[in-house]
Amino acid sequence: MDSYNSPSTKPLYRGTQIVWYILGVIEVLLIFRVILKILDANSYAWFTSFIYTITNPLASPFLRVFSVTQIQGSIVEWTTFLAMFVYWVVAIAIINLFLMGKTVSTPEAAKRLDRQGM
What we know:
The protein is mainly alpha-helical.
């Protein structure tokens, strides 16, 4: 069976799209956080408060990994960059798990195993 016409191809494709979309939203929110901190945005402003409230649960597991850099009120949260990297790695891992469920033909599997040196 051709792996492009497999019944599992479309759900796998949709699954990967969902993971990429969620990652994109997380990354955009975290980059807003970084920019607002660097620009020393007013934390009482609605938008700033909204972004901090939404991103605190995403950034909090990483907040104590590195110290923050503070220059004249501006803050660089290096840990937010770490969070962005970790979420990207997790998304790649999830997508690779999805792709392991993809139907492959025997010749295609043999070719891939040869490339892996098995």
